[in-house]
Amino acid sequence: MSEQVSQSNTGIKKPRFTPDAPGPLAELEAQWLKENKGIDVTAQQVRAVLMYHGEFQKSPAREAQRQEESQAKAEREAANKAKAAERLTKAKEQAEKAAERAKKAAERAAALEAEAAEPEPAKKPARRTKAEAVA
Question: pTM above the 0.85 mark?
Answer without folding.
Answer: no
